[in-house]
């Protein structure tokens, strides 16, 4: 097998944090190579070094056997190395073909539009993607936007493609399609580097490299390892948990939406007569393909969006005309699906993010002033409880790894809520050890008497945790199922609007 990309002795520090510690590995052509490891283990830093985005403090790279220094991503692209990031780098208001031409033009290639359209059509046919060249990128569902990114890079003829948690934003069906496409690229001789936290994807790779605390702990042929061995290598223990599912009788209704109609920014219906309720001691799942109104539903409950019609009450109080502050004051916690847009202020410290919205709390004030000492010590306790890996609570949140940033939101929202928790994709980007922790936290809150509304594109989350699962399609609840009486396949069909189930969102 030819080595397409070779790293030797890569090390990188950020202040006191050793993000990479003397890592050497070979990436072969014709191979899907997974990078696996806990949140903060160094996967993004390593892939950044392979793509010229991060400059290592020491170590070397060789491409096709020739020593090379990658000073920038543009240089990496010129040498045939492309990367797909978690946050897409597309121009939303431009069309698919315009985005592709911008990418190609940036590399100094002249491409006439007709030839580009032909090439786009051929690539779409090859990978079975239905992408119209004139569609406006921001109007496309996330799964297709990701394909624009991928095709933009394939246009440049890359031989090494690095993908940073590409399936985190995809439905199970879309993830499957993407994995199949990566296998085709591999079969065509490309080298694929895939960062993933999902064991079922990792097990589809050819080789897996496990990182722990910046060190390479193993580089194995996937066929010769197992999910159990990988989780032991990754976190130092076996993670194949079973959860205490206390199916107590649900209590009072803590959240009640009836016949809610909401319009989006462009005047179109985003919630279309939606009704759902959640009781105390109950976790209600919300299953749906991204973009079917989940985010709008959470924002509506948080009173960020105005209602056209309908009623919302929380803990028996009508909040239809209320404000976000009113909702927070009723003890509602909200874990949003986009941690950087809605959940955190990147330039603030961990401590300031953990007490965000609670600055008036007397526990954090000394007369008219903020009690910095109290805030720091509360934040330090939260960090150890939620295992946020960072030097101290004065670290800026935009310096954290994705999973650790998510833990900061969880710490804040789980601690400040008292009755109702709204969780939208709470496990996105988390490693399996942390997911296990989050599951236990949510079940503990349920046992305490919380009502929880949980949206997740990970059907495993819903099947494991929920008492009922409501399926949302085009802004409506199209059915409610008991997780023990359904299968992921049936849920998938309901999510696509192709199957119905008995019951409505008000059924228990
Ligand atoms: N720009 C930066 N400044 C300071 N520290 C950083 C920076 N980038 C990364 N780090 C630190 O380096 C370590 C490795 O981070 P990295 O993002 O590579 O981890 P990861 O394995 O990709 O994690 P995740 O699975 O959570 O995305 C972490 O402790 C992180 O906080």
Automatic annotation (TrEMBL):
Is the keyword Isomerase assigned to this protein? no
> What SMART domains does the database record attribute to this sequence?
AAA
Family matches, as SUPFAM superfamilies? P-loop containing nucleoside triphosphate hydrolases
Q: Does the keyword Transport apply?
A: yes
Source species, domain of life: Bacteria
Ordered alphabetically, the record's keywords are: ATP-binding, Nucleotide-binding, Sugar transport, Transport
GO terms, molecular function: ATP binding
Show where the ABC transporter domain sits.
5-238, 255-499
Q: Which Pfam families does the record associate with it? A: ABC_tran
Family under the similarity heading: Belongs to the ABC transporter superfamily.
Q: What is this protein called?
A: Simple sugar transport system ATP-binding protein
């Amino acid at each position: 097998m030819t080595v397409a990309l070779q790293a030797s002795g890569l090390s990188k520090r950020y202040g006191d944090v050793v993000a990479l510690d003397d890592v050497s590995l070979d990436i072969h052509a014709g191979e899907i190579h997974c990078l696996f490891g806990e949140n903060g283990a160094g996967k993004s830093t390593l892939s950044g070094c392979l793509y010229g985005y991060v400059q290592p403090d020491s170590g070397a790279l060789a491409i096709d056997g020739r020593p090379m220094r990658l000073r920038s991503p543009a240089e990496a692209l010129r040498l045939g190395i492309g990367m797909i990031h978690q946050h897409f780098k597309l121009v939303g208001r431009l069309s698919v073909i315009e985005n592709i031409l911008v990418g190609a033009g940036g590399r100094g290639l002249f491409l006439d539009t007709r030839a580009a359209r032909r090439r786009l059509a051929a690539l779409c046919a090859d990978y079975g993607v239905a992408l119209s060249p004139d569609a406006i990128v921001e109007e496309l569902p996330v799964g297709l936007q990701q394909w624009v990114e991928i095709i933009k890079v394939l246009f440049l003829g890359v031989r090494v493609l690095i993908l940073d948690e590409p399936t985190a934003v995809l439905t199970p069906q879309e993830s499957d399609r993407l994995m199949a496409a990566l296998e085709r690229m591999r079969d065509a001789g490309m080298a694929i580097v895939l960062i993933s936290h999902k064991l079922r994807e990792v097990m589809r790779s050819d080789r897996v490299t496990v990182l722990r605390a910046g060190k390479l702990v193993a580089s194995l042929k996937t066929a010769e390892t197992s999910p159990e061995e990988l989780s032991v290598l990754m976190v130092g223990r076996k993670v194949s948990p079973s959860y205490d599912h206390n199916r107590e009788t649900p209590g009072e209704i803590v959240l009640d939406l009836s016949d809610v109609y909401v319009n989006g920014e462009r005047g179109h219906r985003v919630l279309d007569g939606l009704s759902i309720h959640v009781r105390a001691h109950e976790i209600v799942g919300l299953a749906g393909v991204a973009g079917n109104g989940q985010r709008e539903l959470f924002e509506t409950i948080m009173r960020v969006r105005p209602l056209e019609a309908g009623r919302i009450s929380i803990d028996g109080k009508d909040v239809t005309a209320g404000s976000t502050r009113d909702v927070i004051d009723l003890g509602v916690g909200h874990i949003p699906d986009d941690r950087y847009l809605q959940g955190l202020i990147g330039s603030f410290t961990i401590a300031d993010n953990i007490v965000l919205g609670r600055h008036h709390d007397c526990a954090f004030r000394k007369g008219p002033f903020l009690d910095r000492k109290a805030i720091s010590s509360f934040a330090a306790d939260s960090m150890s409880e939620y295992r946020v890996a960072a030097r101290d609570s004065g670290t800026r949140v935009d310096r954290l790894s994705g999973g650790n940033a998510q833990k900061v939101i969880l710490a804040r929202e789980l601690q400040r809520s008292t009755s109702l928790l709204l969780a939208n994709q709470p496990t996105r980007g988390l490693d399996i050890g942390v997911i296990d922790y989050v599951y236990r936290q949510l079940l503990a809150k349920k046992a305490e008497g919380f009502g929880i509304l949980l949206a997740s594109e990970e059907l495993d989350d819903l099947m494991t945790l929920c008492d009922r699962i409501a399926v949302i399609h085009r802004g409506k609840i199209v059915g409610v199922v008991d997780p023990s009486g359904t299968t992921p396949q049936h849920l998938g069909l309901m999510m696509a609007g192709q199957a119905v189930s008995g019951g409505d969102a008000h059924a228990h």
